[in-house]
Amino acid sequence: MTADLPVVHGRLRRRHEADNDPGSLPWHLERAGRLQQVLDRAGIADFSIDTTRVPLPAVASAVLKAAGWA
Questions:
Q1: What is the pTM of this model?
Q2: Cα–Cα distance between 23 and 11 in angstroms, integer?
Q3: In the 8-state DSSP scheme, what is residue 43?
């Protein structure tokens, strides 16, 4: 699953709102972009689902279909 980097950053910020380790958010924000590049270069995905503007039930359905489970 992928999402545009600004969306990933927003999701990370929401997840870290009540974090007891506020210093970890900057690391995750910086790392998200790097990981996206690493995975893109590795070319290991069997399929990719863009979750940027897709509701969760639609993401789940797309994953099931892409994996051949539905």
A1: 0.83
A2: 16
A3: T
Q: DSSP state, 42?
A: H
Cβ pair 11, 3 in contact under 8 A:
yes
3-state secondary structure of 55: coil
- The tens place of each residue's pLDDT in the chain, 70 residues long, gives 999 999 999 999 999 988 878 789 999 999 999 999 999 999 999 999 999 999 999 999 999 999 999 8
Question: How far, in Å, are 11, 15, 31 from residue 2 at the CA level?
Answer: 12, 17, 14
Kindly provide the residue ranges of all beta strands, DSSP E only, lying in the chain, ordered along the sequence.
Answer: none
